[in-house]
Automatic annotation (TrEMBL):
This is Skip-2, putative. PANTHER family: F-BOX DOMAIN-CONTAINING PROTEIN, PARTNER OF PAIRED, ISOFORM B-RELATED. Residues 47-92 form the F-box domain. PROSITE patterns: FBOX. GO terms for biological process: SCF-dependent proteasomal ubiquitin-dependent protein catabolic process. InterPro entries: F-box-like_dom_sf, F-box_dom, FBXL15_LRR, Leu-rich_rpt_Cys-con_subtyp, LRR_dom_sf. GO terms for cellular component: SCF ubiquitin ligase complex. It holds the Pfam family DUF7885. Transmembrane segments: none annotated.
C-alpha cells in the first residue's frame, strides 16, 4: 500500500513524483483512486487508504504479522511506529553486554510490554546490573520476566531491580544465571504480586547455604510477618537444583497458597503443602517412598494431578509400589495419575480404583509390572476412567480385549511401544468400541503375514548359521538373523528394510 508521511487529522496527502511511465488508476469502492502516478513531470496526488482505519484495527493487523514483517511495518511512518510500540506486549531479546547501552532506549519505546525475555549465551558477557535494574522504570506494566544465560547479572543487580518495586510482576523464570539467594530473597520481598517462580540450573544458588525467604529469628517481627502475609507462590518449578535445605523456608512460607510443584532432577520437596493440587516429580533420585507418602498425607484433600517419572540412567528406582499405595489410600480426589518407571502391582491398582473414584486419566509407562492381569483390573474396576495410556509395557492381545470389555466411560486409548499386540486385536477393539479413539503405533503391532515371513527367514538363517558353524568351527560371533527394533513405525520399517537387505547380501557372499 502506498504510504507517505501521514497525519491522523487529514484523509489525504499529496506528493510530487517524476517518472517516465504512464498513470495507473484503480477503481476502489466506486471511486477512482490513483495508486501509482507515472506521468513524466506531472504532479498528482494519491489516497492513503490506511488513514481511514482506526489505530485499533491496525494494531490487530500488526498482531497477526510475523516478527520480521512487523519490524518492517514499524519503519513505514511515525503513526505505524507508534501503533506498533503501543501494541507490542511480548518481546524476546538477545542480551549480550553490547546491548546494555541501548536497552533503556529500546524499552522506553515499548513501554506497554507485559512479557520480557532476555537470553544470552553463557560463553558471552551478558547485560550488566545497571541496565537490568532499570527495567521496572521503563516497563511499569511488566507481568512476566524470563532470564536465561545472563551470568553477569549479580545479586546487586537483582536487589536494585526489586527496589524499583514492580507491582504487577507475577511470573519469573530464571535459568543458568549468576545470582544467588540474596538477590532472590530481595525479589521475594519486594514483588507483592509474585505467584509463579521457576528456577533452573542456578549454580551459585546451589553452592551456598543461604536459605530462600529467610526470616528473622523473632517470630513477632513486623517485617517478617508482613513478608509471610503477602508471599503467595502458587506455582513453583525447581530443575537441576540439589541443595534442598535452602528451599524449606520458601515452601513453608508459601504452603497455604502453593498449588503446583514441579521438581525435576532436584531434591527439594516439602510435606507441609496442604493446598497442593499438581505435583510433578521427574528423575528425583533423592525422593523415596517416604517423601511421596509425606506429600500424599499432607495434600490428601487437595491433590488432583500426580506425575512421577522414576526413570534413572543407572537403573535405580527410589519410588516403588509402597509410595503409590499410600497415594491411593490418601489422595481420594485424584483425577490424573502418570507413573513412569514405577513398578505398580495389582493390589495398588485395586486400592486406587476403590478409593480414587474420580480418576479420569491414567498413564502407565516403562514398567515390566503392568501386564495382561493388571489390564484386566483396570478394565473391571476403573469405571470413571476416560483416558488410558500404556507405554512400553508387556501387554498382549488379552490385555487389549479386557479393555474392550470394561472401562465404560473410556473415550481414548493410547498404546505405544508395547510388543505383542496383534493387528486383529486392535481392529476388534475399534469395531467393539466405536466411540473410543484408539491410538496404536504401527511399530508395536505384530502383523500375521509379517510374523510368518520373519519366522521363515529366521529358520533359514539359523539353518545356514548351523552349516557355517560346522564347516568353520573357529568363527567368532554368530550373525544376528533378526532384530527387534523399538521405535516409531516409520523408523522401524526403514531399519527393518535395511537389515533385511544386509542379510540377503551376506547370504549371497561365497564362504
Amino acid at each position: 500500500m502506498g504510504q507517505a508521511s501521514s497525519s491522523s487529522s487529514s484523509s489525504s496527502c499529496s506528493c510530487s513524483l517524476s517518472c517516465n511511465h504512464h498513470e495507473i488508476s484503480k477503481q476502489i469502492d466506486g471511486r477512482s483512486s490513483i495508486i501509482i502516478t507515472k506521468k513524466h513531470n506531472a504532479t498528482t496526488s494519491f489516497q492513503d487508504l490506511t488513514l481511514s482505519l482506526p489505530d485499533e484495527c491496525l494494531a490487530t493487523i500488526f498482531c497477526k504479522l510475523s516478527c520480521h514483517d512487523r519490524n518492517s511495518c514499524s519503519l513505514v511512518c511515525k503513526r505505524w511506529k507508534l501503533i506498533d510500540s503501543n501494541s507490542r506486549h511480548r518481546l524476546v531479546l538477545l542480551s549480550p553486554f553490547e546491548m546494555s547501552s541501548s536497552l533503556p532506549c529500546l524499552l522506553s519505546r515499548f513501554s506497554s510490554l507485559t512479557i520480557l525475555s532476555l537470553k544470552c549465551s553463557r560463553k558471552l558477557l551478558s547485560i550488566d546490573d545497571l541496565s537490568f535494574s532499570r527495567i521496572p522504570v521503563f516497563l511499569p506494566s511488566l507481568i512476566k520476566l524470563k532470564l536465561k544465560g545472563c551470568i553477569d547479572i549479580s545479586d546487586d543487580g537483582l536487589l536494585a531491580f526489586s527496589l524499583n518495586h514492580p507491582l504487577l510482576l507475577s511470573k519469573i523464570s530464571f535459568a543458568s544465571c549468576g545470582f544467588g539467594a540474596r538477590g532472590l530473597n530481595s525479589l521475594l520481598t519486594n514483588c507483592p504480586s509474585l505467584h509463579h517462580l521457576t528456577l533452573k540450573r542456578l549454580r551459585k544458588l546451589d553452592a551456598h547455604n543461604t536459605p530462600l525467604f529467610f526470616d528473622t529469628d523473632d517470630d513477632n517481627d513486623a517485617a517478617g510477618n508482613n513478608r509471610r502475609t503477602h508471599l503467595r507462590i502458587e506455582r513453583l518449578c525447581l530443575k537441576d537444583l540439589h541443595n534442598a535445605r535452602i528451599f524449606i523456608p520458601l515452601l513453608s512460607a508459601s504452603a497455604q497458597a502453593l498449588k503446583t510443584l514441579i521438581v525435576c532432577r532436584s531434591s527439594a520437596i516439602s510435606s507441609t503443602c496442604p493446598q497442593l493440587q499438581v505435583l510433578q516429580l521427574s528423575r528425583t533420585t533423592d525422593c523415596t517412598d517416604d517423601g511421596l507418602s509425606a506429600i500424599a498425607t499432607s495434600c490428601r484433600s487437595s491433590l488432583r494431578k500426580l506425575h512421577v517419572d522414576a526413570w534413572s540412567r543407572f537403573g535405580g528406582r527410589t519410588i516403588g509400589d509402597d509410595g503409590v499405595l499410600t497415594v491411593a489410600a490418601q489422595c481420594l480426589r485424584l483425577q490424573e495419575l502418570v507413573l513412569m518407571g514405577v513398578p505398580i502391582s495389582g493390589s495398588s491398582l485395586t486400592v486406587l480404583a476403590s478409593n480414587c473414584r474420580t480418576l479420569e486419566r491414567l498413564a502407565l509407562c516403562n514398567t515390566e509390572s503392568v501386564g495382561d492381569s493388571e489390564m484386566g483390573i483396570i478394565a473391571a474396576k476403573f469405571n470413571a476412567l476416560k483416558k488410558l495410556c500404556i507405554k512400553n509395557c508387556p501387554i498382549s492381545q488379552s490385555g487389549i480385549e479386557a479393555i474392550g470389555g470394561g472401562c465404560p466411560n473410556l473415550v481414548k486409548l493410547k498404546v505405544k511401544r508395547c510388543r505383542g499386540i496383534s493387528e486383529a486385536s486392535v481392529r476388534k477393539l475399534r469395531m467393539q468400541r466405536t466411540s473410543v479413539v484408539v491410538s496404536v503405533d504401527t511399530g508395536s503391532m505384530v502383523f500375521s503375514g509379517q510374523r510368518m515371513t520373519i519366522t521363515q527367514e529366521e529358520e533359514e538363517a539359523e539353518q545356514q548359521q548351523q552349516n557355517r558353524s560346522i564347516r568353520t568351527p573357529n568363527t567368532a560371533a554368530a550373525t544376528t538373523a533378526a532384530a527387534h527394533v523399538v521405535c516409531s513405525s516409520r523408523s522401524a520399517l526403514f531399519l527393518r528394510s535395511r537389515l533385511e537387505n544386509a542379510l540377503q547380501i551376506s547370504r549371497r557372499r561365497p564362504n
